[in-house]
Amino acid sequence: MTNTDTATLTTFQEMKLPKTLNDAVTRMGYTQPTEIQALSLPPARQGRDVLGTAATGSGKTVAFLLPLIEKLLSGAATPRRTRALVLAPTRELAAQIEEVALELVRNTPLRVTSIFGGVGQNPQAAALRGGTEIVIATPGRLLDHINQGNAKFGALEVLVLDEADRMLDLGFLPDIRRILKALPDQRQTLLFSATMPDDILKLARDFQVNPIRVGVRHGGRPAAKITELAYAVSSELKVDLVAGLLAAPDVDQALVFTRTKHRANRVAEKLERAGISAQRIHGNRSQAARTEALDGFKSGKYKVLVATDIAARGIDVPALGHVINFDVPVSAEDYVHRAGRTARAGLSGTAITLFARDEEDGLRSIERFTGKAIERAKLDGFDYTAKPQEGLEIPLRDRLAAHRAQRNGQGGGRGAQGGNGGGRGGQGGNAQGGQSGRPSGPRAQGQGGSQGGQRQGGQGGQARPADNARFSTVAPAPGEARGNGQRSGGGRGRGGPRGGNR
Known about the structure:
hydrolase, nucleic acid binding, RNA helicase activity, RNA helicase, nucleotide-binding, 14% strand
């Protein structure tokens, strides 16, 4: 493994890219490469394996897409074959990478498709079988397609593992190893990660050949242009404080991170009741709902997007000015990644953390990790001693009682909202589960919903070409269950690990 810390590239024009790619770079407003781009692009363009380290928001996506696309454009055409594969840990990040890739290949013959859970498999299978040169995928759903014979990688030239540390955190290593067995040994492999623990180095040794190691020495700190503030406040008053912070004239939008999905729902609901346009995004929401929330946030329809950490590395809003940690992050690395959602593309931003008395130790742990004290702040005019009218959390026993009442009232036809596992069924189960002929009750109900999800999912729409022959694989096809497929729609039992949340 060779190390390099010296950047020789100062402008994109120096690269002498193919005209269509150079035009795309100019159209997208890229003039000077970021540090990680300047370090990684020269060896990647030479065909070397690259092991890159850089903080979230530093430009890693362009760092691997540019040499990948250039290689495909300059090489011998292999029609209707997958020539490049990008693996990412979350749906949001895969969609973000796809968006950039589509801009870069706009006036080229190359086709791009994204493969991830939470949406129907049939359009994805049609895109893979029909031929698409660049595939951007989450590991779990891609493995489904490999096992079903939809994905063929005999012509693969480039593999990219993006946010490799996050994929390991999410337990994707076994799936990654299975995927790699389906790939040719002769290929270029680019591996990028925000951190470089021993597991990532071992991964590099296993899957790369004499890689060039490049890295931006950020020392585990958020970007220099991020203002970090911490507010001491009781848990019960956090929503009120967030509302007060959002009322400041300099806050146009904010991304708010919570510890759990339930808390994300409650925070969004309470902010809406306070007259603040808010949406939420987390693993229990359908892909259609997550896409609408993210698009609405990017367009300015929503002032606030409340998210769990599933979105921490998949939301790219270049001008986002504020990130608010509603709960102190569990790990210091998560804090850095969350803060990295702001101050992107050289802009400034503010990262705010709310901490209750029992969260002080976690905040100090973050400060030790980053080597920087976070400034303590107070919101003028806010009553920190007020008594809230209602708590944030609905007690677990009350939530379970409500679920039981809803389940018993609806009988066998009830389905879950989006690929959350097999036994409760996908959305398709909502339409057909009641016709399964099974008696009502918790056990029979789950079976009926699951069967309904499978039947409904059996009718797939065809992938429709659009935007440079891109296959639309994000929205469920007509007549297709959300979370459709052998694993994501039904047939695995309630809460199965391979539901549509990948």
